[in-house]
Each structure stands twice: as structure tokens, then as C-alpha cells.
């Protein structure tokens, strides 16, 4: 059973960089054809696709977030990472990592951007 667990600071100040980690257990993140996605949901809004790191390490990002987002992985730790630069209160959301095709989702972590 593949399980995902997001972790992050909880509270970030405006203009800072948000760094999140997703630890995957029960399977390797480099398993062929797995693609790992970061998704967020702001209060009262729908799910927003942020970006993906695919098998082989290729990445793709939402056009609206591309200039501020970086997704990477650490295969030695079986972890995924998300960095979001220059955050504003509009980035307040629950952040999820997921393997959407296999329907593997973490429980999400709430990030609040506030001074």
C-alpha cells in the first residue's frame, strides 16, 4: 500500500519561500510510469493543479505558477519537494501530493500565509 505524507511549516510570511516535502512509503517514487503531482485547495475554492514530476524526472508546471514553482525529488529519501517563491496570502491553502493515476493521495497539509 503506497502512502504519501506531506510536511511543511504551517505558517509562512508574505514574500518568503514555501518549502514542502512529501514522503512516500510502500513504493518507490521512481517506479516506472508514476507521476507525482502537487495540488492545492484554497479555502472555499476547488482543487488547483500546481505541477508534476514524471517518471525520469521531467517536470511541468501550471502556467499561472510556473515562475514561482519548483518541484524536485530525492530518490535516496523517496521524497518529493515543492518550493513556492514569493508567497502571498492568496497562497493560503491545503497542499496535497498525489499519484493521480493510481489515486494515491496524501492527507494534505494546511499552509497559511500571514504576517
Structural class, by secondary structure, is mainly beta
Helix % is under 10%
Overall pLDDT level: 96
Major beta sheet, specifics? 7 strands, mixed
Distance N to C terminus: 39 Å
Give start-end ranges of low-pLDDT stretches: none
Q: Helix and strand succession? A: EEEEEEEEEEE
Q: Count the helices. How many? A: 0
Number of DSSP strand runs: 11
What portion of the residues fall into strands of 2 or more residues? over 45%
Radius of gyration: 13 Å
The gross shape turns out to be: globular
Sum up the structure in keywords.
115 residues, seven-stranded mixed β-sheet, globular, mainly beta
Give a quick precis of the structure.
This protein has strands spanning about 5, 10, 20-25, 35-40, 45-55, 60, 70-75, 80-85, 95-100, 105, 110-115.
